[in-house]
């Protein structure tokens, strides 16, 4: 989805589905748990009423320039999430793709002695030093989407799953092959920028999942996460492949151009799978113009805001026995189809 997003971990999925991390289970601390020995366990539990107002938390947020639908959703979702809490003072720096400017923004937050910083870095390596400085100053840093190069630069890291996106798309493609009883299916892929690790991870996940059902990618082009490049590369793909059964496009923003190419060529005979989860894609699914899309959660910074608040208030995730916020959280990459699109539609971002 974003041109600069870094490679994602394929670690433990702590939060799945909608990417909502904090689930309020009001009143559960009043329930005693049987430890299996017949006695009642007195082991401490994570806070249960996490949304109740608590200690005031000042959070500084620095994110990217909103030059892409997914990036715009990242910023707006973070601001909206902070607005839900009366105990959060949210300070937003201007969105930027300039690492030097973003470093100065973090320096300002440090000087202002904010309680926490939620940071989606323009470049993880470039922002590592200043993020470490913030941590050393006692500020809780939540790293979002593009990882720092040192574990000391953040208290916790929240990520999407690029490899998992590919696996989800490939697994769904395998299901289509079986359900449609396709013999010798032609499977195509419209990737993003090939030089980026995120694209490489998505493609590898897709290929690995297809391999599990004996399939391969027959035709592949790489675009640049833009509408124009999507249309151009999809047109090239259609000219090269006279028969296609399934197409996976990595990014729903570039998918607008991809769909235009399909319309221009009057080619809609294939199952079209997208990636990211834009509102455009979800509407196409509802209208029957698109088979599915794979979510790359635009909630990551919003989830980061929640985590930052919990960290400062010394709370944990209410659905975990562990009483502290985990060090690393990788969000799930679910497949959205006509059967479940209404569930995910509220998370769809405008391309």
Q: Numbering strands along the chain, what is their spatial order in the largest sheet?
A: 4-3-5-6-7-13
What is the strand tally?
14
Largest sheet, in brief, is: 6 strands, parallel
- Structurally, how many domains make up the residues? 2
Overall structural class, as computed from helix and strand content, comes to alpha/beta
What's the shape? elongated
Q: Segments where pLDDT lies below 50 for 5+ residues?
A: 1-47
Q: What is the end-to-end distance?
A: 11 Å
CATH class of the largest domain: Alpha Beta
CATH superfamily of the largest domain: Response regulator
Number of helices: 10
User: What share of residues are in beta strands?
Assistant: 15-25%
H-E string? EEEHEHEHEEHEHEHEHEHEHEEH
Whole-number radius of gyration?
21 Å
Helical proportion, percent range: 25-40%
In short:
GO terms for molecular function: carbohydrate binding. By secondary structure, the protein is an alpha/beta fold. The chain is built from 10 helices and 14 strands.
Account of the protein in words:
This protein has 351 residues and is α/β, with parallel strands linked by helices. It is elongated and about 60 Å long. The longest helix has 18 residues, at 162-179. The protein is 36% helix and 16% strand. Strand 3 (57-62), helix 1 and strand 4 form a beta-alpha-beta unit. It folds into two domains: 48-160 and 299-316, 3-Layer(aba) Sandwich (Rossmann fold), CATH 3.40.50; 162-295, 3-Layer(aba) Sandwich (Rossmann fold). The chain has helices spanning 69-82, 99-111, 124-136, 162-179, 197-212, 227-240, 252-265, 279-287, 300-312, 341-344, and strands at 33-34, 40-41, 57-62, 88-92, 116-119, 140-144, 156-159, 187-191, 219-222, 246-249, 271-276, 292-295, 328-330, 335-336. A six-stranded parallel β-sheet has the order 4-3-5-6-7-13, with helices on both faces. Strands 9-8-10-11-12-14 form a six-stranded mixed β-sheet, with helices on both faces. It is built from ten helices and 14 strands.
């Amino acid at each position: 989805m974003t041109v600069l997003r870094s490679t994602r971990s394929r670690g433990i999925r702590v939060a799945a589905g909608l990417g909502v991390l904090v689930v309020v289970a009001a009143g559960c601390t009043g329930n005693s748990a049987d430890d299996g020995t017949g006695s009642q366990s007195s082991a401490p539990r994570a806070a249960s009423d996490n949304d109740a107002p608590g200690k005031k938390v000042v959070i500084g947020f620095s994110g990217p320039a909103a030059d892409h639908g997914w990036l715009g959703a990242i910023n707006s979702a973070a601001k909206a999430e902070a607005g839900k809490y009366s105990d959060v003072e949210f300070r937003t720096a201007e969105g930027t793709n300039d690492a030097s400017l973003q470093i100065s923004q973090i320096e300002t937050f440090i000087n202002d002695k904010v309680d926490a910083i939620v940071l989606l870095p323009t470049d993880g390596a470039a922002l590592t030093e200043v993020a470490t400085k913030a941590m050393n100053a006692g500020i809780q840093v939540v790293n979002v989407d593009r990882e720092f190069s040192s574990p000391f630069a953040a208290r916790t890291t929240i990520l999407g799953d690029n490899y998992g996106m590919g696996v989800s798309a490939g697994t769904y493609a395998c299901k289509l092959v079986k359900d449609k009883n396709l013999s010798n299916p032609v499977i195509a892929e419209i990737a993003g920028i090939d030089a980026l690790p995120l694209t490489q991870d998505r493609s590898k996940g897709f290929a690995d999942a297809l391999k599990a059902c004996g399939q391969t990618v027959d035709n592949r082009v790489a675009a640049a996460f833009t509408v124009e490049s999507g249309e151009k590369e999809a047109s090239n793909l259609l000219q090269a492949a006279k028969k296609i059964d399934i197409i996976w496009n990595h990014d729903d923003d570039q998918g607008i151009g991809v769909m235009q190419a399909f319309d221009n060529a009057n080619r809609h005979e294939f199952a079209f799978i997208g990636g990211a989860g834009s509102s455009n894609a979800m509407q196409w699914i509802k209208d029957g113009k698109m088979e599915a899309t794979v979510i790359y959660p635009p909630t990551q910074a919003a989830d980061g805001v929640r985590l930052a608040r919990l960290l400062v208030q010394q709370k944990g995730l209410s659905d975990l026995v562990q009483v502290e916020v985990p060090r690393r959280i990788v969000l799930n990459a679910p497949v959205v189809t006509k059967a479940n699109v209404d569930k995910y539609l509220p998370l769809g971002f405008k391309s």
